[in-house]
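Lab meeting prep.
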Amino acid sequence: MESVIMGKEREAASGTDHRGGKYLVFQLGREEFGIRVLKVREIMGVQDITAVPQTPAHVRGVINLRGKVIPVVDLRLKFGLPEIEYTQRTCIIVVQVPCQAGPMLMGIVVDGVAEVLNLAAADIEETPDFGDGRATPYLLGMAKVKGQVKILLDIEQVLTCQDLQGLAAVCASG
């Protein structure tokens, strides 16, 4: 573990930290999160989501995106936040994540989209050790922007294909 941390520190010090770049910032509750713009395919308002039986609570179901059926995950529920009514600001961010069968589009429901930030590697700090032994592979780091902290997510770790095994078959046949 120590060598991994030292490696990351060396990587950051040598300027080869690849976390810099453009991030789409969105809200969940009072917190702001960022995902790489390169993973984002589209941002849309909430539309009718078709529920799929026997899926986890955070999997809202599927939507039809220009003839393609894609699964939709409510990120609030995935992160253990309380469920709230969708508002005018609630939206679906369509992202592309790798799966065994190839790249897959997925929608994530968020409370609202804030902005696109161009972050330098120097603006991003390592994720703190929360001390309870929990692994946080889905966190890329913490960005410091104008005195506020934005939590940067590795969306490929947040949305794993294993989460959506049942839906993958539904979507492939759609």
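Slide two material, second protein:
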Amino acid sequence: MANKNKIQKSNEEWQSQLTPEQYHITREHGTERPFSGEYNSNKQTGIYKCVCCGNPLFDSKTKYDSGSGWPSFYEAISEDAIEEIEDRSLMMTRIETVCSKCEAHLGHVFPDGPAPTGLRYCMNSLSLAFEKSEKK
């Protein structure tokens, strides 16, 4: 379900808010190198949010080690947290995931994840901000 209150900023506004690497990933649909991301091995409890707008995206309870080299989750935090878009770049068809509030590129979702959803949300660490929970 699309978010009706989209955050819209100019490229210059996004560039002033984000690091060059974050801007490349989130606004230019880039991809970080596998096993290079800050959150790939993160095992702390908390919430992963959009680095651009703070929209909650994933709960650490749904994170798992997919072996892909990118932080992977089997479920978004809510039905309307992300949007899925068909991506036909790189001579293949994939499903791109973007933040529902600001349309930041997050990564892709694949149908090869674990139960209970069978999905693998393969995210770029640079598109995420982690908010640690005090609960263990």
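Talking points for slide two:
The chain has one domain: 11-132.
The chain has a mean pLDDT of 93.
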